[in-house]
Write a structure and sequence with these properties.
- With about 375 residues, the chain is of the alpha+beta class.
- It folds into three domains: about 170 residues, no CATH class; about 35 residues, no CATH class; about 110 residues, no CATH class.
- It contains three helices and 19 strands.
- Strands 4-3-13-5-6-7 form a six-stranded antiparallel sheet, with no helix packed on it.
- Helix 2 runs antiparallel to helix 3.
- The longest helix is centred in the C-terminal third of the chain and has 57 residues.
- It is elongated and about 140 Å long.
Length: about 375
């Protein structure tokens, strides 16, 4: 018996990320009434447009956009005329970007602004409503003079951007983003109770086999218990017993043949040893004869084989003949040439008369 418990849980997670609140790219300019009549809102239904803004309609009461210090986390990216990034500014401030003044700004994450200092117009201090309402919506010092670090420009040819750079070109522009803080929470939606799931110990439970089969281990197989074939053949079949005896006899015959061949192999090895000795002695005798008689010019005394070597040679030849005869006999017996079933002689005698005398001759098989 096994039990299984299932619990289902879903996580409601919204990833924290920057959200675009104003885009002005590809050297596009907002219309002159962007602030005075449109209130800083443009193309709200097309967030991927070259000109887009929801700054004027942003819900500043939504605390998901404020950090633990009640600040907005912002990112401003400036693009050169060729579309490459000029600068990426990241900072935090407590006041909204469209407020009249910048409040409690944290500029510690900004890149270096040297050689400019807070007394210069080019120095970035955060974002607020620009005093130059005829050309810009937001700028980098708010109610102070100048309109460097512009955001939402209209009615002007060039962009006064970060660190005193005027940018123009086909792809000049900027993008303003605000960070949204969201805490991931785990919310259980269903929790099932422990439900026992019964698992049978018998793998054949629920399996139905044909009449001639039986379930074993979860599969249908032959029912060998119905007929014990091994015991039946051993006890009841005379032919099966004879076959077993024949198999035993064949195994013994094969063993005897292997023994005989092993004996023949040893005899051949012995003969080979004798022949090697004869060869070595013959070469030595022939060498002695050449050295003693040929070079001494005594041809009448040359004898290639001594009497001792002749005896060895005769014995070797005799052994070789015996070996050949033995091998021949083994092969004949093996092939059954001398079995009792093979009988020689004529099958019958044909009798006929030649003149007045009876002649008998055998009929060849």
């Amino acid at each position: 018996m096994q039990q299984s418990v299932l619990f289902a849980t879903i996580l409601a997670v919204v990833s924290s990320e920057y959200e675009v609140i104003l885009r002005q790219i590809n050297n596009q300019k907002f219309p002159n009434n962007f602030v005075s009549q449109l209130g800083g809102v443009y193309n709200v239904n097309n967030p991927n447009a070259d000109l887009y803004s929801i700054v004027g309609s942003f819900n500043t009461s939504d605390n998901n956009y404020r950090d633990e210090n009640d600040r907005y986390k912002l990112r401003l990216t400036y693009y050169k005329g060729d579309g490459t990034v000029l600068a990426e500014l990241k900072w935090a401030q407590k006041s909204w970007v469209a407020a009249d003044a910048i409040v409690d700004a944290d500029l510690s994450s900004l890149p270096s602004q040297a050689p400019y200092n807070p007394g210069n117009c080019e120095y970035f201090k955060g974002l607020a409503r620009s005093t130059d309402t005829s050309v810009a919506y937001l700028d980098g010092n708010g109610k102070e003079r100048c309109w460097w670090n512009v955001v939402g420009m209209f009615n002007h040819g060039n962009f006064p951007m970060f660190k005193g750079q005027w940018i123009t070109g086909a792809k000049a522009g900027l993008k303003l983003e605000v960070f949204r803080f969201v805490t991931s929470t785990a919310t259980p939606i269903t929790t099932s109770t422990a439900t026992p799931i019964t698992t049978s110990a018998d793998p054949c439970e629920g399996i139905t086999c044909p009449d001639d089969l039986v379930c074993s281990g979860g599969k249908c197989k032959r029912n060998c218990d119905v007929l014990n074939i091994d015991s039946f053949l051993t006890d009841c079949s005379a032919e099966f017993k004879e076959s077993e005896a024949d198999i035993t006899k064949l195994q013994n015959d094969v063993g005897n043949i292997n023994t005989r061949f092993a004996t023949v192999d040893s005899e051949i090895a012995a003969i080979k040893t004798v022949l090697d000795q004869i060869s070595a002695q013959s070469e030595g005798a022939f060498s002695n004869v050449i050295n003693d008689d040929v070079y001494n010019k005594k041809p009448s005394n040359i004898s290639f084989i001594s009497n001792e070597n002749k005896d060895i040679l005769i014995i070797s030849l005799l052994l070789i003949n015996i070996l050949i005869i033995t091998i021949g006999l083994v092969l004949c017996f093996k092939n059954g040439l001398f079995s009792e079933n093979k009988k020689l002689g004529p099958k019958y005698i044909e009798v006929y008369r030649d003149s007045d005398a009876e002649v008998q001759r055998p009929i060849n098989q």
